[in-house]
Amino acid sequence: MEDTMPMDYLRLMVTEEMVLSMVTETNRYATQTVEHNEQSPYSRFHQWTEIALEEMWAFLDLIISAGLIVIDYLKDY
Length: 77
Description:
The chain is mainly α.
């Protein structure tokens, strides 16, 4: 159990299907936002590219790791 990482525990509770649903809905939300709202010329939405399953897993890993590692300043994360 020494080699166990936080993501190993997350994968016991969260299935790939659940994360794939998060990816699908995130991409759908971004697409709808770009299509139905007027964006400023400087909006990040102009650079939007769809996210992939691996990116969502990495994001979840980052969130969990940030919650486990105590750092004094937010900018240091």
